[in-house]
Amino acid sequence: MSAATASPGYAIPVGVEHRFSAVAVVLSFAAGATDAFAFLLLGGIFTANMTGNLVLAGLVERAGYPMVVVGASVAIVAFAVGVYGAIRIAKPSAVPSSRLVVVLAITSALQAAVLVGWLVSPHPLPVMMQVAMIALSALAMAGQTGVARRIEPRSGVTTTFVTGTLTNLMADFADRKPQAAGVRVSVILALVAGALCGALLVGVHPALGAALPLVPSLAGLAILAMAVASAHRKGG
């Protein structure tokens, strides 16, 4: 049986790795949609893009800065804790583990909780509810980032830190190294598409903007579950 190694300890049968790449692209769309919702409706905070939050934390002249720095800080801490937890749970193994599916299922549940919170809360959102939704959304994005790191380490793809993906893409072009250009470009475009769709849906109705991130999260979960099952069949 031929196999492609996706990360230390993972031996992925040829063909299955394409499904993992598809998961990364779908989750990148989810990240774009999530950041559009969070930025437009949760006080101008990013819950997928932590670099953006670090910059926001320094913009002391921005209107409403105290709330901005609180939201950005909550998002950063929740994201850091979430990534740590996701990486710890989804440990590498001889064959891609069902733990990857468990982590992504948790992230989908968190996205669903954000949607429910938005639907049942009074508007404008009370401060504590807004902070809670920022934390839940950041945890969801952290889980997705952890899964992407486990399934796409060779390409340098991450579904939330696209600056790194773009850097790897250009660096390998400059050095004329072989690379997974297709998945890298697709992830970047998917992030933009997700943000665009999210912003447009927020304009139609805020609840639609809140619901959109859950759709690609569930789609990514389904593709990942099938990919892991297929890897186990071929690996067994």
General description of the model:
- The chain is mainly α.
- The protein has a single domain, classed as Growth Hormone, Chain: A.
- 73% of the residues lie in helices and 4% in strands.
- It is built from 9 helices and 2 strands, in the order E-E-H-H-H-H-H-H-H-H-H.
- It has helices at 16-41, 50-57, 65-89, 98-120, 127-151, 162-174, 181-204, 206-211, 214-235, and strands at 3-7, 10-13.
- A two-stranded antiparallel ribbon has the order 1-2.
- Helix 1 (16-41) packs antiparallel against helix 5 (127-151) and helix 1 (16-41) runs antiparallel to helix 9 (214-235).
- The longest helix is centred in the N-terminal third of the chain and has 26 residues, at 16-41.
- Residues 1-9 have low confidence and may be disordered.
- The chain crosses the membrane at residues 20-45, 65-87, 99-121, 127-147, 185-204, 210-231.
- Keywords: Membrane, Transmembrane, Transmembrane helix.
- Pfam families: DUF1275.
Structural class: mainly alpha
Q: Termini separation (Å)?
A: 10 Å
Classified by CATH, the class is Mainly Alpha
Unreliable stretches: 1-9
What is the CATH topology?
Growth Hormone, Chain: A
Strand adjacency order, main sheet: 1-2
Average pLDDT works out at: 87
Main beta sheet: 2 strands, antiparallel
- Total of helices: 9
| H/E element order | EEHHHHHHHHH
CATH architecture: Up-down Bundle
Instruction: Give the strand content.
Output: under 5%
Radius of gyration: 18 Å
Count of separate structural domains: 1
Global outline: globular
Q: How many strand elements?
A: 2
